[in-house]
Amino acid sequence: MIMETNTPKKIAGMKFGILSPSRIRKMSATRIITPDTYNEDGFPITMGLMDPHLGVVEPGLRCKTCGQQVGKDGCNGHFGHIELAMPVIHVGFVKTIRDILRSTCRRCGNLLCEDSEKKDFLREYDEHIERDRSLTEFVKKVLGKSSNVKECPHCGRQKLVVELDKPTTFREAGHKLTPSEVREWLEKVSETLGNDLRLLEIDPKSAHPEWMVLTVLPIPPVCTRPSITLESGERSEDDLTHKLVDIIRINQRLQENRDAGAPQLIVEDLWELLQYHITTYFDNQTAGIPPARHRSGRALKTLAQRLKGKEGRFRSNLSGKRVNFSARTVISPDPNISINEVGIPIEIAKELTVPLRVTAHNIENAKELIQRGPNPVPPKGRIYISGVNYVKRKDGRRIRVTYNNAMDVAERLEIGSIVERQLDDGDIVLFNRQPSLHRMSMMAHRTKIMPYKTFRVSLSVCPPYNADFDGDEMNLHILQSEEAKVEAEILMKVQEHILSPRFGGAIIGGIHDHITGCFLLTIKKRKLSLGDTIQILSSINYTGDIKKGMTGKEIFSTILPKELNLRYRAQACMNCDTCLEEKCPYDSYVVIENGELKMGVTDGKSVGAFKGKIIETIAHDLGLEAASNFIDKVTKMGIAAISIVGFTTSIDDEDIPEEANMQIEESLSNAKKKIDQLVRAYNNGELETIPGRSLEETLEMEIMRVTGQARDATGEIASKHLGMDNSAVIMARSGARGSMLNLSQMAGCVGQQAVRGERIHRGYQHRTLPHFKKGDLGAAAKGFVSSNYKKGLKPSEYFFHSMGGREGLVDTAVRTSRSGYMQRRLINALENLKVENDGTVRTTGNVIIQFRYGEDGIDPTRSVRGDAVDIDKVIKEMI
Amino acid sequence: MLGVETMGFNILKHELVPYPKILSYKEIKKLLKDYDIQKEQIPKLLITDPFARAIGAKEGDVVKIIRKSITAGISVAYRLVVSSER
């Protein structure tokens, strides 16, 4: 094999210039004169748009310019050119041309300023270059100064106003300038200014102003615009070719008409048409002209459209790459799978392969593997066994393994070949869900081949992926090298991401029913029958002793590591004024001693994602392996417990007795009275203003306060009648799902609706809806919803509620798009930064950004909720 | 060179402005050696920056910046004084 010399080189700079007509002719392989592409026999016409001098696309044919074939030899084609009958303005440069025309004299071509001023400009320019400063502002200044002159200081010609009539027409004092005239003017400018062109940020070495008016048009090689042969044998040309055909056709007609001495009007019309075609050839979305269309009415995709935007060359082909060895399908939950695993459909496993390098040590295994063929019959008791799809031999040949040749291929297997083995249980793969906003959006899992067609994931990894099962799809990537596998195992495995770098706590843990289950299991002194105990413990493959009449807390303790010592307040904590700690009447003070749950209930704050204290502590003190084990077990135990106790919720969970409803009504009418009082006080001018607020603002604030209190009061009344035997309350209190506010809105009252933080005030003149009197400032007229969700809202309340809801919806939409863009820019700016071994943060150029990572050098995943050391805990452990 | 005296307000006395120190030649050499870097790899501070003006830093100076930090207590950083961006 030939070794390629790959010396790394540093790019010192990049220079952009404009092609000169002579340069275009010089690099041209042929001149193009006919708009036709192929003759009747299907051969390209010489000097036509598909001239073989421009390179060839079909394999086997040879390029007439360099004699090489496409692809292998590496002929990417050659440019051709058209001689334009009349010059045409290049749309890409109209703004620059306008600036030059405005700041120079048409007669002498000089910059419209005194020589002394020009000298000053030149000096300033050199200074800018020396200091390496941006020239944008400077050029603006030069242009501004010299386009405000009435008369040329050099030749005395009156300066006329030059206007740009979009997109490509120039007018001097109302008179149209033809491209020829513009070109003459620009020629004069580059002649007189010479090197002084740099004042306009033009380098005369690489760009002359007159080159911005085209006299010769380069024709891109055929490879740039390949034609497609349809199944019917019909040829379909690329959009660019279509556009070039138009250009050549009009160019020809223009030439003929001009040479034949046709009337000026006709020539001008054709000239303008040529200008249109060339303009749309560059950019088919130029403002001010209709886009050129295909026969079907579809707008043509010309040069600018190929590069621009999301589907353009940059964002789609250069920044965005596609990969092999990947799969995508719908995800669904599997409560029995480990957080480190992912379930993979058999169909996918058969398609994806892992390369296996054959050595003296594994050649026998490899042979056996190949003998199975691509479609092995699984042995009894298994649903899947991996086969082999391809064998890559040492000479680079890839052999597809089939049922028929499997034996043969296995026989001839040599050391050094690569066997492409189908996916099997335990392979390490990357699993990802978009949007990939943080590093937990892509984690490594171990495979588990399963029947049916979805990826199966543990419920505990839903929070980091932000996944649910309403049709979400996820991507899977198979690692193709040993290094990658090891790296993924060490850095990317799910268990390595239990602790979030965002806040140093657990992001993976129990959710919903796991939390409810643990709550129900450990609440108060729940005692379980022997049968139930066995049922629960069997779910975690418990192997220790089982006593008769174990309490839920004892059962829960079986999965706690013996080294665990913890004390904290549970989620269910009522936040009493003075915490009674061990004597908590709600059993909300958790005490774990030597891995035994002595008291307290385990809920969201113990085992939940984002909050789980136990998970956090195990991950910090006993390692991630232990934490991942604990999560697997606690979720299974939670599910087992909730299945035994039984759990359901429905709207009648929000049923409250009649007396409670009366209390709520009374409380609401009291609030209404209070508001009426406030309004009356306001109307009579008796309201006392809050310092720094107007009278109106004071009233609004007071009313908002009262409505807020009213809602809370109803909530309190409602929750007084909803006890801990209520499923909805259990979920809210344990932190499994929903909040007490949700409940009080269902059972009590929905409360004040707001738009932009104020009571609803817009609508009709002096009122929100025609249901109210003009100028009514009362509660109901300004969007207070006194009904609850269960009872149902009154029509006007429903309307106000929609207004508030709409605002929320719009807010989230705006927020996501804006924060998404901000994220994109941040990532682009920071993606190459790296923490070096000395603790500094550096760029790829080794420039230091931070002398110590994050000022303190602390890895937030290893911190205790952001602190480097948990001093209190250390002290407690010492004593 | 300008100093604090010519400014209307002594920014160096403000709580958020770090404690200033201009490194000596020897200290710079040690710094470069400690981090195994060239001078250009140090983060930059514009000479027109009020802080640089206040302490009268010259182009090419390296300024030691000692800041109070909530998480680290005291954090130390260095800036190379330059006359223009890039």
In short:
Helix content of chain A is 37%, strand content 13%. With 879 residues, chain A is of the alpha+beta class.
Kindly describe this structure:
The complex is a heterodimer of chains A (879) and B (86). By secondary structure, chain A is of the alpha+beta class. Chain A has a 6-stranded mixed β-sheet with strand order 9-15-14-17-8-16. A 4-stranded antiparallel β-sheet of chain A has the order 10-13-11-12. In chain A, a hairpin with a 5-residue loop joins strand 11 and strand 12 (398-400). In chain A, helix 6 runs antiparallel to helix 7. Chain B is α+β, with helices and mostly antiparallel strands. Chain B has a single domain, classed as Alpha-Beta Complex (Eukaryotic RPB6 RNA polymerase subunit). Chain B is built from 2 helices and 4 strands; from the N terminus they run E-H-E-H-E-E. Chain B is globular, with a radius of gyration of 13 Å. The two termini of chain B are 23 Å apart.
